[in-house]
């Protein structure tokens, strides 16, 4: 893929995220997607990716704004920086109780791309800052 095709793929992925369209997100990722969750483990495969997305939909309502997407010259790697505008809807295991807290949190993600699909997504944000925002 070219650099511009990679940027377009990542943009489609995050546009689908903002629409809550997990099926469209899944179309952007490979069958063996490696999904590294912030301060968590690696989930491998589209099934695990979709299970995580369903869990997130239950606990959080999020929109990503101020998106900046970058890609390597060869289109094999990409990064996105954005601001998460969210609502903590339902308590997530090991985290504080949810009471509909709103939060605004800077975050980013790194991706590997192959054969027109995202093969790895690694997401980062400051968990301690998020904990303060929902306290």
Task: Tell me what you see in this structure.
There is one protein chain. With 135 residues, this protein is α+β, with helices and mostly antiparallel strands. It has a single domain, classed as Nuclear Transport Factor 2, Chain: A. 34% of the residues lie in helices and 43% in strands. The protein has a 6-stranded mixed β-sheet with strand order 2-1-6-5-4-3, sandwiched between helices. Strand 3 (60-71) and strand 4 (77-88) form a beta hairpin. Helix 1 (3-19) packs antiparallel against helix 2 (22-28). 17% of the residues are buried. The mean pLDDT is 96.
Beta-strand percentage?
Answer: 35-45%
Strand order of the largest sheet: 2-1-6-5-4-3
* Oligomer type: single chain
* CATH overall fold name: Nuclear Transport Factor 2, Chain: A
Mean pLDDT: 96
- CATH architectural label: Roll
The parts where pLDDT drops under 50 for at least 5 residues are none
Name the structural class. Answer: alpha+beta
How many domain modules? 1
Rg measurement, Å: 15 Å
Give a summary of the structure in a few sentences.
By secondary structure, this protein is of the alpha+beta class.
Helix and strand topology:
Blueprint: H1 3-19, H2 22-28, E1 29-36, E2 42-44, H3 46-59, E3 60-71, E4 77-88, E5 101-114, E6 117-125, H4 127-134
Parallel strand pairs: 1-6
Antiparallel strand pairs: 1-2, 3-4, 4-5, 5-6
Helix pairs in contact: 1-2
Q: Main traits of this protein?
A:
single chain; 135 residues; alpha+beta; 43% strand; 6-stranded mixed sheet; globular; 6 strands; Nuclear Transport Factor 2, Chain: A
